[in-house]
Amino acid sequence: MIRTDRGRSRSSWPARFLAGAMFASLAPLSAQQNDEAFDPHDLSGNWDRETAIVTYSNVPGSFRDPVNRQMSDQGPTAEPPFTEEGRRQYLDNMPGYGANRREFERNDPIGRCEPAGIPRNLTAEIIEPHDTLEIVQTDDRILQFFEYRHDWREIWMDGRELPAFEDTWPTWNGFSVGRFEGDTLVVETIGFDARTWLDKYGHPHSEEMRLEERYRRLDADTLELTMTIWDPVMYTEPWESDTKIYSLNRDRHQEWDEQIYCVPADEFSLQELFGTGNTIN
Q1: 30, pLDDT greater than 60
Q2: CA–CA separation, 113 vs 267, rounded Å?
Q3: How confident is the model at residue 276, as a pLDDT?
Q4: CA dist., res. 224 & res. 216, Å (int)
Q5: How far apart are CA 232 and CA 218, in angstroms?
Q6: Which pLDDT does position 239 carry in this prediction?
Q7: Residue 205: which residues within 8 A CB-CB, separation 6 or more?
Q8: pLDDT in tens, 103-158
Q9: What pLDDT is stored for residue 83 in this prediction?
Q10: What's the CA angle centered on 134, arms 130 and 137, to 5 degrees?
Q11: Where residue 9 falls among pLDDT bands split at 50, 70, 90?
């Protein structure tokens, strides 16, 4: 696990980022199944992203190799079911990755400290030990804390229904309600800000997007997530994600919060170091 060297000056942090990226690409480890007893309705804990897919879904070119851990076959790739407007906006975006990649002219919101939003907070490819989220469960809510960018969201579990669309307004993480269907946590969310992207490939969404997340604890140490979006403005049919896998990090809660905020002065230094040309129109 990569640790932050707190003895160095702040100006050296881009170098630490590059070093971390090299360590994160070391040979994969084998995933081990844990037969320990667990409560499938208890999703609390720190969960590290393990899946090899670095986008919302398994689109061509999104497989990361090597991965942090050796996972099962990710299945066939598929192009997003774009509407004409969805494809236009996708091509207008200027990501740093994927088929629509721009070499020195980019407008990825995350590169200028804009909020990642949901679902990107759930899938963002961040090097360890920051590729993690914490789930906290209370009597009436589930809270998700994302270490990268120090963001959080709430999922209401008190039986309420989603508000009517006309009663919402654009937000970064949306309005979310959840319920258990058997051992699967089902989360529904509306009320999104269209300025966020679904992933680093620049897949767009509109304010009309509706998101469903389905979480299932496979064993004591493994959490599975699949997502489906409905967005008639951008996609001709519901678009389902690949299966995301998270592993329980039992030691994380004992560590200091590293307070990974996106500070424009620091972020811009990194952008200049990489020469990305990232801009926001």
Answers
A1: no
A2: 7
A3: 58
A4: 5
A5: 32
A6: 97
A7: 192, 194, 196, 197, 198, 229, 231, 234
A8: 778 889 888 889 999 999 998 767 666 678 999 999 999 999 998 888 999 999 99
A9: 98
A10: 175
A11: very low
Cβ atoms within 10 Å of 214's Cβ, excluding its own: 17
* Contact by Cβ (8 Å): 79, 55: no
Contact 188, 212 (CB under 8 A): yes
**218-266: per-residue pLDDT in tens?**
999 999 999 999 999 999 999 999 999 999 999 887 777 777 777 777 7
pLDDT-based confidence at 41, cuts 50/70/90?
A: very high
Six token digits for residue 97? 């990755």
- Token pair listed for 277: 């040309």
Residue corresponding to tokens 């994927």: 98
HEC assignment per residue over the chain: CCCCCCCCCHHHHHHHHHHHHHHHCCCCEECCCCCCCCCCCCCCEEEEECCCECCCCCCCCCECCCCCEECCCCCCCCCCCECHHHHHHHHHCCCCCCCCCCCCCECCHHHHCCCCCCCHHHHCCCCCCCCEEEEEECCCEEEEEECHHHEEEEEECCCCCCCCHHHCCCECCCEEEEEEECCEEEEEEECECCCCCCCCCCCCCCCCCEEEEEEEEEECCEEEEEEEEECCCCECCCEECCCEEEEECCCHHHCCCCCCCCCHHHHHHHHHHHCCCECCC
Comparing C-alpha atoms, which of 92, 13, 18 is closest to residue 261? 13
Give pLDDT, residue 40.
Answer: 96
- Contact in structure between 253 and 70 (CB atoms under 8 Å): no
